[in-house]
Amino acid sequence: MRSILVANPKGGCGKTTISTNLASYYAVWGVKTVLVDFDPQQSCLHWIEVRNKEGKHAGITGLSGLSGSLDIPDGTERIIFDAPARSVTDKLAMLMKQAEAMVIPVLPSPIDMRAARDFVDDLVKKGRLKEHKHLVGLVANRVRGNTNIYAHLEDFLIDTELPFVTSLRDTQNYVRAAERGTGIFEMGPAAVEQDLEQWRPLINWIEGKRVKTR
């Protein structure tokens, strides 16, 4: 069983988008997945409710991380933790110990880049990256190529000592997927071809091997 933590102390950086689309990837390939929502808004669980109503791929179990102990179903192959904002806490340390990979999404804005740097610095200062540094990867999220701010974000992520895994573009495909309780891996290939290519490095990094996105 492999566990993945998606975390960033700043709200609105796309943690839920990455968590739900990652869960949908595993659902497409028949991997039994648990999606644990630690955010008070419980957006992941709402996504699963919509998904169930639409009769999408089975295989994803949603659990609230706010209710104490977790009852992980037998046979679970992947667990995805969607951490809340402002999560530099003992709970985050506990989740990091459980996770085999930690994804930190960062938006192309000065505020988000500063927040991400402070977050990483805090993890280093508290010694939480000593044993987990090689398991933590950065993702540039909602980017628009050929813009000055993206160039600054790319430079920032490359300069960070953590792996810069991939960039995910700013597209309505993620909005449409969220509205339907689905993921880009379940949408028409022609509409999401570029997105699938951007996700490939992230999936490969998490799984530690070459995997297909179709």
Overview of this protein structure:
By secondary structure, this protein is an alpha/beta fold. It has a single domain (2-204), classed as 3-Layer(aba) Sandwich (Rossmann fold), CATH 3.40.50.300. It has seven helices and seven strands; from the N terminus they run E-H-E-H-E-E-H-E-H-E-H-E-H-H. It has helices spanning 15-28, 43-54, 90-98, 110-125, 148-159, 172-180, 189-207; strands at 2-6, 33-37, 60-64, 78-82, 101-106, 136-143, 164-169. The protein has a seven-stranded parallel sheet with strand order 3-2-4-1-5-6-7, sandwiched between helices. Helix 5 (148-159) links the parallel strand 6 and strand 7. The two termini are 22 Å apart.
